[in-house]
Design brief:
The protein has 57 residues and is mainly alpha-helical. The protein is 72% helix and 0% strand. Helix 1 packs across helix 2.
Length: 57
């Protein structure tokens, strides 16, 4: 039922977190960059306008 589904979802999320943590400990900068790019891939297609600013702006 519902409780079993929630427990399985929580276990899956915890397993995913631990997997990411393991990779982060091996290569923190690479993992940070990968997570950032994955987030952009997910978010950017939903935006109507995108503004890119450099550090000098």
């Amino acid at each position: 039922g519902y409780a079993t589904a929630r427990i399985n979802q929580a276990k899956g999320e915890a397993d995913r977190f631990l997997s990411i943590l393991k990779e982060y400990r091996k290569a923190p900068e690479v993992t940070r960059r990968r997570m950032y790019l994955e987030t952009l891939e997910e978010v950017l297609p939903r935006l109507e306008e995108v503004y890119i600013m450099d550090k000098q702006s």
